[in-house]
Amino acid sequence: MSDDPYYLIRRSHLPEVIRKTTQVSELLERHSSMSVLEATRKVGISRSAYYKYKEVVRPFSASMGGQIVTLALTLRHERGVLSEVLNTLASRRASILTINQSLPLQGLATVIISVETRDLAGELTDAVETLRGVPGVDHAAVVGQG
User: Fold this and answer.
1) Are residues 53 and 73 in the same domain?
2) Is 3 domain-assigned?
3) Measuring CA to CA, which of 33, 57, 62, 135 is 20 to 30 A from 83?
4) In this structure, are 88 and 52 located in the same domain?
5) Is-contact 109 136, C-beta < 8 A?
6) Predicted confidence band of residue 33 (pLDDT cuts 50, 70, 90)
7) Per-residue b or e along 112-124, where b marks 16 or more CB atoms closer than 10 Å to that residue's CB
8) What's the rounded Cα separation, in Å, for the pair 71 and 143?
């Protein structure tokens, strides 16, 4: 199994049993007093199906825990945009390791930020979505992990 490749795929494109397996895992994580039986009944899959797939499917961000993630952003050359990006990351408890910014060309600058995700509050995908919503951020994406 260690030679098996990994793939990124949207949850909406997964088979129903895999989607439900992730829902059971999320319920169990959020509600520590809930049993596997209760969670599987609530979601609508069998316990055996859950146990079959629970170790082989997990959110992308779960595999990123405690790792260094590299983000690439395109920012408009406006006062305070980079500061707001850094404050957004800090509010999610991302530990910022490096920041590299290009000179603005045609009103846009590329910023590469490396963050450590061990203490990240919430999912990495949610943090990136929040960055995309910051005024002045034209693009934000995860471009590497290590």
Assistant:
1) no
2) no
3) 62
4) no
5) no
6) very high
7) ebbbebeebeeeb
8) 6
* 53 and 23 housed in the same domain: yes
> What pLDDT digit, counting tens, does each position of 108-122 carry?
999 999 999 888 888
Give Cα separations from 128 to 9, 74, 146 (angstroms). 17, 13, 17
Instruction: Decide if 41 is inside a domain.
Output: yes
* Domain span including residue 25: 11-58
Identify which of 141, 59, 130 has the alpha carbon closest to the alpha carbon of residue 92. Answer: 130
Token digits for 137? 């951020």
Average pLDDT over the chain reads 89
pLDDT band at 66 (very low <50, low <70, confident <90, very high): low
Task: Name the 3-class secondary structure at 35.
Answer: coil
Q: Which neighbouring-strand residues pair with 140?
A: 73
Helix axes of 124-132 and 81-91: crossing angle, nearest 10 degrees = 160
Q: Which two tokens stand for residue 134?
A: 């910051």
Look at the chain and count its residues.
146
